[in-house]
Please model this.
Amino acid sequence: MAISSVDKHARQRSLEILREKFATIAKRILEGKKPVLIMPKRVLSNTIYDMKKKLLLLGPEMKRRSLLDVNEARKFMQTLLMASIIYEALVNDEYPTIRDLYYRGKHTISYRDISGKIHHENTWDEQRESDAVIRDIEVFLGVLREEMLILSKEKGKVVGNLIIRSGDDVIDLSKMGHGAYAIEPTPDLIEFKDIDAEFVLVVEKDAVFQQLHRYGFWKKYKAILITSAGQPDRATRRFVRRLSEELKLPIYILTDADPYGWYIYSVFKIGSITLSYESERLATPNAKFIGVSMTDIFGEEEAAKNINKLASIFGKEIKEVISKPRKKAYLSEKERRNYIIKAKKKDVERAVELIGYDVADKLIRNPEIKKYIRQKKLGVSGYPWFRTPEWIKEISIFFSKLAKLEIEAMASKGLKFLADTYIPTKIETGDWID
Amino acid sequence: MGVMSAVAPAERYRAISPAEFFYKYREIAGFSNPARALYQAVREFVENALDATDSHGILPNIKIIIEKADENREFYRVTVEDNGIGLPPHVVPEAFGRVLFSSKYILRQTRGMFGLGAKVAILYGQMTTGRPVEVITSQPNLRRIYYFKLRIDINKNEPIIIERGSWRKNRDWHGTIVSMTLEGDWSRAKQRIKDYILRTAVVTPYANIVFITPDGEIYYYERVIDKLPRPPKEVKPHPYGVDLELMKRIRDGGSFSTVKEMLMKSFQGIGKVTASSLLEIAGISPDLSPKSLSDRQLLELVNAMKNYKRFRAPTSEALSPLGEEVIKAGLKRIYEPEFVEAVTRKPSAYQGHPFIVEVGIAFGGKVPLSSDKYPTLLRYANKIPLLYDEGSDVSTAVIKEDISWDQYLVKLPAPIIVLVHICSTKIPFKGVGKESIADVKEIRNEIKLAIQEVARRLRLYLSKKLKEEEKKKRVVSLAKYVPEIVRALTIILGDGQGVKAELLEEKLVEIVSLRTGIPKDEVHKVVKSVEIGV
Model:
């Protein structure tokens, strides 16, 4: 097997690091010292946006997880338990998924309290808990889960004029019929053999991916078509990054016109908060947000209306970006009425998290929503990577209209419109947010 | 004044003998039915027995025997034996055979007030069974032991001696044994009587008490402390508590040459100056002979004394509180609690009567669970347990309304007992049953302060205990993970490579013990209790 040597090497290295790290813990215990695991903090406050690299990175703060801290004892136990399961899988040449690890480690601990009453406690209850422990082990060891040969469910799909080698097989991604190639959990083991494409289009929605695939979009426009099917998993992000980095293809991201879509784009581009330790490997700094943007729906005049309010927060410079309307809306007034959806409170909240409370407070006109946001999100400062003139313009329209739109709506205006007008025009005119 | 209120009706009914009167109105003394009568008889003799011992500095040995005295009828023989000061032989017939004859017509705290109850019991026994009372007694300085068999002549209120005798003491015995037979109802009275003796035992840890029931049960409360409560002293009445009847008795009974002398010698807190100003207020010449004073003049004097503001507070020397040590020892003897504390308040007074409030609290151990409204209450008045009418007692009002128990970390229902003892030369009883104490402002306040003081100490104890439990809980929440951690580490590091599972576990137990301050074996216990997997 071509990859087995790669595998073997990865296993060996992971095992060594595991042994070394946990030997230190055992040594501390035998010396009568407090057993602690020292690891970087995986929280928002310790996530740093590197302006230069345009990446979300893990900050320098460390946490000490001690067995003697009542609040940390359970996590301490879970971390050791998970480490021992991963260790056994590595030794036995297995490829467990994160769900396997969840099942392997889930069991009951029975004990008696001071009054002699028997209690039962599960090592963990939901997979969410064991997944978090795996992430802790990644940062504690400084070893990624892929390097420990832990798999996850395949989620991302790809089609296009691309020939790859996966394992011992060579696969032509243009010959997948109506189906698509599922991006494997260890995308670093894929070898790119041949390529005939000019750009990569990543769509958030699987349904839109299928429509564009059947329409022959990627053939017609020489594209690699990818879907993350919602929030992108690590494999999809790594695959996109490799297409950008190794094949130098431009990456365009197409999502819903709503705060969740915007965040998905930012995860591709700069990384996520929970996995900030992976950004250097997973993020694609060149990825561009192609749409659907608020200006595509409402036109740029709508943004211009907010210009003075925004200038009061961001200064005059913002006027330059906003004041020159370059394009018209892609939707007519009538289409807008048919396709746009009223934003829910949850959407507004999410948008405030991205851009900050000050912008929301200035732009939201609906008094009820305004009051609600004041109660829930007062003082939220927003993520720095969204507080750029383009995003301010985009999200300001969302606040003043309190409306969102799903990509399917663009397709219902006509698949032809989406495939042959909307996407090509956006690319040709450079109408994206970078 | 209690003495007067008891004497007054006797005078009004001079036409019939006091013995006859009390027999007719025996309900007043608590002899309304056979069950109640048996209970009351036991009480009267036990209280006399205790008065004859602890009030005279003698550590009591008391034996109570109730036995069936007739095969066919519900006759019971009640025998109470004490090791008290005994009685001089010449007063025995009077003391047991004439109603209203008592050694207790003095102003000091005693259990029974007039020695009345014992005689009503004897009367009741005589009327229901026709059997006489038997008394055996000797005093410490006497060489002989005296024996009497007596009956009361109800019409003449006179003792009839049926048999008498004496014999030489061949050991140093003193005390009294009273034995009488009455119609009773043991099955209905037994719970009350057992309760009564238990509660008496709570406040007499310095006494050996043996109780033998008709069912053949033996209850033995062994002495646990050699300290007796301070015996009460005899004192003169305080001017605030005076009334016209008492004034008349003093006028008629004494041989004072002047009214001024009478005041100075008959009351506490009246000296030359006070006597003069009182007589001036009353408009009476100080040199008059007391005998020449009219009832009207006496009334003037009483009023002057009642309104006089500058008397010293009444002396508490007549009172005999149990003392903190005795209360604690008593509660310990019966309930073996994990926490016990007591307080004896400083003497206080209401309407010229001195009183002292004492409170004890026992928590945990064998203390029974209280109701969910308020702690279990043990009430005492002059060392006598009060068993009935709890709902209308001042102490009940205090623990229900004045104290918020959760403030003292007591989560009701809880194993908690509050003992309240009020001693006074005059207990303000509610009604004739003498089972509950009236809501007198001064007394209520003292009870509240006393309970608060002891409850604060209880809170301190409970908060310490809570912290200790928290600590132990914390240990459990750490130690329960030790086996899993040891298992994981030995998997990763390999049991053979110098990392022994036993050693790791031992070390972890040591670390947990050291950091939490909980002993190693307790941590071990938790670790050993852990089972991994189902």
